[in-house]
Specification:
The chain is mostly helical. It has one domain: Up-down Bundle (Ferritin), CATH 1.20.1260. It has 6 helices and no strands. The model has no long low-confidence stretch (mean pLDDT 78).
Length: 177
């Protein structure tokens, strides 16, 4: 494989780590947060991360080949523990001594960091392809991750300013999702 091909494989592995690991992370954050609306928010995000894996199959298989996609996907789905970037975020919580109960702002910041990294990763993937179909799928993933990030930011702003969770997303991106 060429250098670009190796980088794409690496990015696909990282993307799957984020999507599978992100689902586990959001479910974990749902258990840690004390507020019912916070739990609902994190569980909704966990389900959306699971949906991303299915939607991205076509894209990732086109980037690395169907056989490689199946191999990477099976390995990532079968991982019993959180790995990679998600493990790094989990370790940060442990290091700060909030393993038993994360405060809501800490949980939101961790979730925002996950989404920020996903945005950057999908944007980098877009730099390695000129296929219009792949670019369209990557653009959709980037938009969805920005939507998640913006909603988490709105939640954080609400908690920091008034101490309340929002019951549902405060806004939609032109009704796309």
């Amino acid at each position: 494989m060429s250098h670009v091909d190796d980088r794409i494989v690496e990015l696909v592995r990282a993307a799957l780590d984020l999507e599978f690991g992100g689902e586990r992370l959001y479910r974990h954050l749902a258990e840690l947060t004390q507020h019912p609306a916070g739990r609902t928010t994190f569980l909704r995000l966990a389900n959306e991360e699971r949906r991303h894996v299915g939607e991205s199959h076509e894209l990732f298989a086109a980037l690395v080949g169907e056989e490689e996609w199946q191999r990477i996907s099976q390995r990532e789905a079968g991982e019993p523990n959180v790995t990679g970037i998600v493990a790094e975020l989990e370790a940060a919580v442990m290091q700060r001594g909030h393993a038993a109960v994360a405060d809501d702002t800490q949980a939101l910041r961790m979730a925002m960091e996950l989404e920020r990294r996903a945005i950057h990763m999908y944007q980098e993937m877009a730099q390695h392809t000129d296929d219009p179909v792949q670019l369209k799928l990557l653009s959709k993933l980037v938009q969805e991750e920005f939507f998640h990030y913006d909603n988490l930011q709105a939640q954080l702003d609400s908690i920091l300013n008034v101490g309340l969770w929002l019951d549902q997303p405060e806004f939609r991106m032109d009704g796309k999702f």
